[in-house]
Amino acid sequence: MSHCHDAGRVAKLDEVLRSVPYQYQHKDRMRNDVAILLRSCHTLMPETNTFRNGGKQATLFYLKGVLPIGYRGSTYNIPVTIYFDPPYPQTAPRCFVTPTETMAIATGHPHVDQ
After folding, report:
1. Which of 22, 34, 41, 86 is the most buried (most CB within 10 A)?
2. Which GO terms describe its biological process (predicted)?
């Protein structure tokens, strides 16, 4: 991947971080950590969104995209969403597989939500 694409994704990161709320007290640390990740994993893009749950709302920063995984000689692009909660870096990011409509999901697995 070229440095031009890296620069574009880092510029997008800076744009997205401008809309991140004040609850993120360590934005500089988060920006540096995420910029390093974006340089090595070209399939993730930074985003923010406001989520509502039980009358509460929160604007969260996250990365969305695919992680290429090698398995038995094939490469699979696993769709993921990685949430950075406001205590970051005191708490680790939360990572979720976000399956597409056509993906088969194993039921009954201890790490699979129903």
Report:
1. 34
2. endosome to lysosome transport; protein transport
Enter the tokens of residue 101.
């409509």
Which pLDDT does position 65 carry in this prediction?
96
Residues 6, 61, 97, 87, CA torsion sign: positive
With contact defined as beta carbons under 8 Å apart, do 85 and 48 qualify?
Answer: no
- 7 Rama class: left (phi>0) / alpha (psi -120 to 50) / beta: alpha
Model pLDDT for residues 91-110, shown as the tens digit of each residue: 999 999 998 888 887 787 77
> DSSP class of residue 93?
P
pLDDT in tens, 13-62: 999 999 988 889 999 999 999 999 999 899 999 999 999 988 899 899 99
- Map tokens 């990365």 to a residue: 63
Strands 94-97 and 74-84, by their bridges, are: antiparallel
On whether the CB atoms of residues 94 and 82 are closer than 8 A, the answer is yes
